[in-house]
């Protein structure tokens, strides 16, 4: 099969098309013939050598895909060869075939084509797991950064479906328009004084929940902007990993700070999250409450170009690789 290998840690040019043996599904695993492969920010970090795969995971990049069931491992049941599916993976998706634990494979949302489906489960699982963790409720004030990105555009729509008031940030006027078009009540440029703008929107009551992709560089502002009982959940470290946490401010507000990562969780936890995504998120996509982000597609062999686009920050929505083109 064709796969994309990281020749050595480095820039997009280190991504090379190679021929590899097709993987063989073990007990409780499913072999998937990939249709579309989601490109995620974590893939850029892994390519640079900063985000090694968890023990036992494929060394190939790729945390999600859509496709069709090609074969079942021993004791596999519930699937037939040819069934359409999507998978959440710890790695290995940048290939024509990938093996996934059966619990991390679900049917695509009804009414969604298989290419679009390839970029849904990583963001859906991340947003659902984290907003469940901090218990986002109807009527609460919610802030998400990068509202036109993969996670951000999904988080805006999911929070609106929950009934929250949504503030999103983005880096350009077009992306701010996109945030509004998918339901953000307020769209703020992160290049301006967004903390002051948040303060004037919340009128001193503060934010209830923040889904944070930045980490250290926004930590002090985030803790200051939380309201009483507010919850900050850090899922990305684009602004660094070490910051100053004002515990006095946090305890006065009875606030919470969480930090989570989806990829290294045990298979059973990921399986439980995938089941919740299929049960609670897929119907909101099928009925149109959540619209999949726009996609930019590249042939699998052009993975380097896909990484360049994601790295440039110029893309809107999801970037996908297509093995069959
Ligand atoms: N912990 C987990 O389990 C987990 C799982 C998946 C993703 N993540 C993390 O979630 C984040 C988003 O992932 P993604 O797949 O959605 O990537 P993405 O589409 O590349 O989004 C990155 C976002 O960061 C925004 N951004 C850049 N500079 C910013 C700044 N100074 N202030 C605020 N926002 C800024 C960008 O906004 P513009 O495009 O408007 O510039 C963009 O929307 C990444 O950090 C990723 O590592 C974590």
The tally of structural domains comes to: 2
Share of helix, binned? 25-40%
Identify the CATH class of the largest domain. Answer: Alpha Beta
Second-tier CATH architecture of the largest domain: Alpha-Beta Complex
- Heteromolecules bound: NADP nicotinamide-adenine-dinucleotide phosphate
Cα-atom radius of gyration: 20 Å
How widely separated are the two ends? Answer: 14 Å
Organism: Microlunatus parietis
Domain Enoyl reductase (ER): 10-321
Protein name: Putative PIG3 family NAD(P)H quinone oxidoreductase
Keywords: NADP, Oxidoreductase
Describe, in plain words, how this protein is organized in 3D.
GO terms for molecular function: NADPH binding; oxidoreductase activity, acting on NAD(P)H; zinc ion binding. InterPro entries: ADH-like_C, ADH-like_N, ER, GroES-like_sf, NAD(P)-bd_dom_sf, Quin_OxRdtase/zeta-crystal_CS, Quinone_OxRdtase_PIG3. Pfam families: ADH_N, ADH_zinc_N. The protein is an alpha/beta fold and 325 residues long. The chain has 2 domains: 2-120 and 263-322, Medium-chain alcohol dehydrogenases, catalytic domain (Quinone Oxidoreductase, Chain A, domain 1, Alpha-Beta Complex), CATH 3.90.180; 124-259, 3-Layer(aba) Sandwich (Rossmann fold). The protein contains 10 helices and 15 strands. The protein has helices at 41-47, 114-117, 121-133, 150-162, 173-181, 194-202, 216-225, 247-253, 267-286, 303-312; strands at 2-6, 15-19, 29-39, 64-72, 84-88, 97-101, 105-106, 141-144, 165-170, 186-189, 207-212, 226-234, 256-259, 295-299, 318-322. Strands 3, 4, 5, 6, 7, 14 and 15 form a 7-stranded mixed sheet that branches. The model has no long low-confidence stretch (mean pLDDT 96). It binds NADP nicotinamide-adenine-dinucleotide phosphate (NAP). NADP nicotinamide-adenine-dinucleotide phosphate is lined by residues 40-42, 122, 126, 145-146, 148-152, 169-171, 175, 190, 213-214, 235-236, 238, 260-262, 310, 313.
């Amino acid at each position: 099969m064709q796969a994309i290998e990281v020749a050595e840690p480095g820039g997009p040019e280190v991504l090379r098309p190679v021929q590899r043996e097709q993987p063989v599904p073990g007990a409780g695993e499913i072999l998937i013939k990939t249709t579309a492969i989601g490109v995620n920010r974590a893939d850029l970090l892994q390519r640079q050598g900063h985000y090694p795969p968890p023990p036992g995971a494929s060394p190939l990049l790729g945390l999600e895909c859509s496709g069709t069931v090609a074969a079942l491992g021993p004791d596999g049941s519930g699937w037939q060869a040819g069934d359409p599916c999507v998978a959440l993976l710890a790695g290995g998706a940048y290939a024509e075939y990938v093996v996934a634990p059966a619990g991390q494979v679900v049917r695509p949302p009804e009414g969604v084509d298989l290419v679009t489906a390839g970029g849904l489960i990583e963001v859906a699982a991340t947003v659902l797991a984290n907003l469940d963790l901090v218990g986002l409720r109807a009527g609460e004030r919610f802030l998400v950064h990068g509202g036109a990105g993969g996670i951000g555009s999904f988080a805006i729509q999911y929070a609106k479906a929950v009934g929250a008031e949504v503030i999103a940030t983005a880096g350009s006027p077009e992306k701010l328009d996109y945030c509004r078009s998918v339901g953000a009540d307020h769209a703020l440029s992160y290049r301006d004084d967004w903390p002051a703008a948040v303060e004037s929107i919340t009128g001193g009551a503060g934010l209830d929940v923040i889904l944070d992709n930045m980490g250290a560089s926004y930590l002090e502002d985030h803790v200051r902007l939380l309201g009483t009982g507010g919850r900050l959940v850090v899922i990305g470290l684009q602004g660094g990993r070490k910051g100053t946490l004002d515990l006095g401010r946090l305890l006065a507000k009875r606030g919470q700070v969480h930090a989570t990562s989806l990829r290294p969780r045990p298979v059973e936890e990921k399986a439980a999250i995938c089941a919740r995504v299929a049960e609670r998120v897929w119907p909101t996509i099928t009925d149109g409450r959540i619209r999949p982000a726009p996609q930019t597609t590249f042939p699998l062999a052009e993975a380097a170009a896909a990484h360049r686009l994601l790295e440039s920050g110029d893309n809107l929505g999801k970037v996908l690789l297509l093995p069959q083109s």
